[in-house]
Amino acid sequence: MNAETPKTLEKHRVSPPPHVPADLIREIDAYDLDGLEAGFHEAWKRVQQPDTPPLVWTPFTGGHWIATRGMVIDEVYRSPERFSSRVIWVPREAGEAYDMVPTKLDPPEHTPYRKAIDKGLNLAEIRKLEEQIRTIAVEIIESFADRGSCDFGSEFSTVFPVRVFLALAGLPMEDAHKLGLLANEMTRPSGKTPEEQGRSLETANRGFFEYVAPIIAERRGGSGTDLITRILNVEIDGKPMPDDRALGLVSLLLLGGLDTVVNFLGFMMIYLARHPETVAEMRSDPLKLQRGVEELFRRFAVVSDARYVVADMEFHGTQLKEGDLILLPTALHGLDDRQHADPMTVDLSRRDVTHSTFAQGPHRCAGMHLARLEVTVMLQEWLARIPEFRLKDGARPIYHSGIVAAVENIPLEWERQKVSA
Q1: For residues 414 and 149, is the Cβ–Cβ distance under 8 A?
Q2: Of 218, 208, 125, residue with least CA distance to 168
Q3: 64: closest CA among 403, 419, 334?
Q4: How far apart are CA 48 and CA 3, in angstroms?
Q5: Rounded to an integer, what distance in angstroms lies between the CA atom of residue 143 and that of residue 165?
């Protein structure tokens, strides 16, 4: 897009600091990507041209670096001693307002809180939930399978993972709408300036804390088997979890459980609706479906968080200063053609699938086992009942970029027939 178009002139921008050379500046707004109307992943892929440097700097969202290659994204995630999690959102004002743990903590302070989360979300515990997850998926799919159509977003993707997580956390389904609005403001904060976005995120963060505070008071010291009770009552360094950390930890569980998988499913199903040959391949080989889930996570990463540079350094030939922020669009790792041939295509037979969809290093997503199981079960049960489907003629999905990307308006249709599960 031309730098003098009205769309760009409206945006809040900052002047580059002295250490940023002019040839590394790119006008990239992580909350309003150029070409977003054609697709979120397509818009990020436009940034990753053969001659794009591994790090570029943008004057939007408060001014920050952007890692454009998979190897750089991976290295930053795995190096908390150089790239801190003290500010993980852009703009900086939003990142400083973000107050959930352990995502904003660095090792070793981070470690006991991560162990607490892993107690409830480790692979062995998640495997115990498969039948419960399958029952929820079947119930939702069968509510519209005979109709021959659905709005995938409102009828499935914003319902299925939310029902699963709220059941896991022991929370009422009627709270989903309120929590969803808060999650939206956390991951795509409203506002035209960094200051406005920071205030929006701070308000949403406070909303989460106000919601979870009475839940924490009720369940602290309890013997329940729900996820919140089990994690809340893990001791930290031999003592009860401090109240402020408990607020951040339980809020983070809700944020992660109510936003990320919801949006991943939307992007995935748009692609599958447009590529019936991939759907047919999944149906033909159950093992290929199961193994192909990792390829789907590679292709449809939705998170773009940041890291804080802890000291002046040279990194991949670029001078960084203490306090700089580096945005890590995880989509650009999975879509990097230096690591994956034909990366925009879902190849269920692809080997050596690498990505940062669940991040890397000490902050690798604790919910990844739950996400993988949810997607696998959902595909198995969907294809058993709706073996072929397509986007409704004229459908125009609406894409949103941000810390977690989103997509709306996914009308699907299929021939009215029910296939026995």
Answers
A1: yes
A2: 125
A3: 403
A4: 19
A5: 20
